[in-house]
Design brief:
The protein is an alpha/beta fold. The protein has one domain: Alpha-Beta Barrel (TIM Barrel), CATH 3.20.20.100. It has eleven helices and ten strands. Strands 3-4-5-6-7-8-9-10 form an eight-stranded parallel beta sheet. Helix 3 (86-100) crosses helix 4 and helix 8 crosses helix 9. The longest helix is centred in the first third of the chain and has 15 residues, at 86-100. The chain is globular. The N and C termini lie far apart (40 Å). The structure holds adenosine-2'-5'-diphosphate. Adenosine-2'-5'-diphosphate is lined by residues 19, 21-22, 214-216, 219, 234, 249, 251, 267-271, 274, 277-278. This is NADP-dependent oxidoreductase domain-containing protein. The record marks 78 as: Lowers pKa of active site Tyr. Belongs to the aldo/keto reductase family. Residues 17-298 form the NADP-dependent oxidoreductase domain.
Length: 317
């Protein structure tokens, strides 16, 4: 299979998508265009990534040239933490659609289960969040209020499917207690250093599709020189030896490991060859032994700790 069927709508979500996190604005339109031309049919964006206008430009170019139709592409975006109040959530989702130049999202996610004080959309990270000017201010918006906004966005056809990101199990279970429209997708960090087995099992039970992000491992922290005792996943011997067996790259092995478990992946690449290579992961299989060896690398080691974004700690404390 190359898609996952979402439970409520029956919509098909591609297993391999293109992630827009860390794609620079200056290169975003070109990269989105190239990704669509290479065959990607899912674009994973977010208000937080700051490149939605450019992503929309790349999409428009591909549509104009007849490479894709709007309905062929599964477009995901996310609600940033400063827009959790009901009306603000509804307004910003519409605004994000305008930035993209489209009239619906295939999927809209709550980016983090944490609400932060409203700031103008252009000032996502005011200096005080970084501890330069006192503590940041949380708002008192419960997830339930935000979820009501998400449900109304689904009712209105603004978002065909709705879901959540960076939610852990207990808050997900709580959401199911009151959801009129159940979340269709959970997007979380997931790779062999952070296998999230119980969260994946819970999602299966609840009928939610899981999208893994940072599938190639927690690279940027390593680039920053932290956790230097943990080798990058791409160069881990277990990964490179399996790659050799299959004559594939380490990245393809890591992506295949996720896809083979029924998890969607959204790797980002600014490089033409890597962008193409990351799409070629549905035409080979890992043995049970190889899958087990990769899963055994788990050390619960994460790049993005949702709790670390809480204002009480300071952002990314
Ligand atoms: P680059 O854009 O230079 O290819 P994320 O996990 O957030 O999707 O980020 C993926 C990271 O891994 C990026 O830094 C990207 O850099 C790099 N990358 C993407 N594809 C590959 C690949 N096939 N092999 C090695 N590195 C890759």
């Amino acid at each position: 299979a190359t898609t996952i069927t979402l439970k409520r709508t029956g919509d098909k979500m591609p297993l391999v998508g293109f992630g827009l996190w860390k794609v620079q604005r200056s290169e975003c339109a070109d990269i989105v265009y190239k990704a669509l031309k290479a065959g990607y049919r899912l674009l994973d964006g977010a208000g937080d990534y700051g490149n939605e206008i450019e992503a929309g430009e790349g999409l428009a170019r591909a549509i104009k040239e007849g490479i894709v139709k709007r309905e062929d592409v599964f477009i995901t975006s996310k609600l940033w933490n400063t827009f959790h109040e009901k009306q603000r959530a509804k307004d910003i989702a519409r605004h994000q659609l305008e930035l993209w130049g489209i009239d619906y999202f295939d999927l809209y996610l709550i980016h983090f289960p944490i609400s932060l004080e409203y700031v103008e959309p252009s000032a996502k990270y005011p200096p005080e969040w970084w501890g330069l000017d006192g503590a940041p201010h949380p708002t008192k918006v419960p997830i339930q209020e935000t979820w009501t906004a998400m449900e109304e966005l689904a009712d209105e056809g603004i978002a065909k499917n709705i879901g959540v990101s960076n939610f852990q199990g207990s808050i997900l279970i709580d959401l199911f207690r009151y959801a009129r429209i159940e979340p269709q997708v959970l997007q979380v960090e997931l790779h062999p250093y952070l296998t999230q087995e119980s969260l994946v099992a819970l999602s299966k039970t609840l009928g939610i599709a899981v999208t893994a992000y940072s599938s190639l491992g927690p690279q940027s922290w390593l680039e920053l020189g932290m956790h230097t005792k943990t080798p990058g996943l791409l160069t881990h011997e277990t990964v490179t030896s399996i790659a050799k067996t299959h004559s594939r790259s380490s990245a393809q092995i890591l992506l295949r490991w996720a896809v083979q478990q029924g998890l969607a992946v959204i790797p980002k690449s600014s490089n033409d060859d890597r962008l193409k290579q990351n799409l070629q992961v549905t035409d080979f299989s890992l043995s049970e032994e190889e899958t087990k060896a990769l899963s055994a690398l788990n050390v619960n080691y994460r790049l993005n700790d949702p709790q670390a974004i809480h204002p009480a700690l300071g952002i990314f404390a």
